[in-house]
Design goal:
heterodimer; A: mainly alpha; 434 Repressor (Amino-terminal Domain); 61% helix; 0% strand; B: mainly alpha; two-stranded antiparallel sheet; 5 helices; flat
């Protein structure tokens, strides 16, 4: 699975650490790290919680990347 | 906020794991079943070829224990802290004390010669020593992982 750099960029744009984002969405920091590193495929529920927190759409953070 | 602490986990005083940790935890138990099967098969093959390394009950206990401890180590290295930071610290301390007591008791003086191996088989003290070492190793892995996490945070 490819790294999710869009999530990392959106988090950095909001000046949020992995820990802060994890606390906001109710998961462990390692889980956010795993999603960013492309090691874990989150459920739609978690994707939506992340999108709400980072004020982005699902497509912007988790949509298919177009070439 | 996601629902990590439902009524069931609150009622039974267990901290909730997130979805990834729940998945990995389930996978850990699946791996424990695989370790258990492999060790039981190996023990059976050894017994079939005439090698009895421990008394039946002790061998079963050690196999079960080894499989579970391997699972605990796997869980620690996957970063699953399902008891919260304080409780994990207490758990590591408890495991360390148990390991020291088991090792110290198995090495106690006055057991005479052959305390480790009796009649070509691992004796009770030898089994206790092995279990103590495994418990200590698991506690050390959990501590190492916890320290790495704290340094990273």
């Amino acid at each position: 699975m490819a790294k999710n750099l869009r999530l990392k960029a959106a988090r950095a744009a909001m000046d949020m650490s992995q820990q802060a984002l994890a606390e906001r969405v109710g998961v462990a920091r390692q889980t956010i790290n795993a999603i960013e590193m492309g090691e874990y495929n989150p459920t739609i529920r978690l994707c939506r919680a992340i999108c709400r927190t980072l004020e982005k759409t699902l497509d912007e953070l988790f949509g298919e990347e177009t070439q | 906020m996601m629902d990590r602490h439902n009524w069931f986990s609150r009622a039974f005083g267990k901290n909730g794991m997130d979805e990834r940790q729940t998945y990995l935890s389930g996978r850990m138990y699946k791996h424990v079943a695989v370790y258990l099967s492999v060790l039981t098969l190996a023990n059976g093959l050894l017994a079939d070829s005439g090698v009895v390394w421990a008394d039946g009950f002790m061998a079963s206990l050690l196999i079960l224990y080894a499989a579970y401890m391997a699972g605990v180590v796997e869980k620690a290295f996957q970063g699953i802290i399902d008891y919260g930071r304080k409780a994990t610290k207490r758990l590591i301390a408890l495991m360390s004390v148990a390991a020291v007591v088991m090792i110290a008791y198995s090495l106690r003086p006055g057991q005479g010669a052959g305390w480790l191996v009796e009649d070509g088989m691992l004796g009770a003290s030898g089994c206790l020593l092995a279990m103590g070492i495994m418990m200590g190793a698991a506690a050390a892995c959990m501590l190492a992982r916890r320290r790495a996490e704290l340094n990273r945070a």
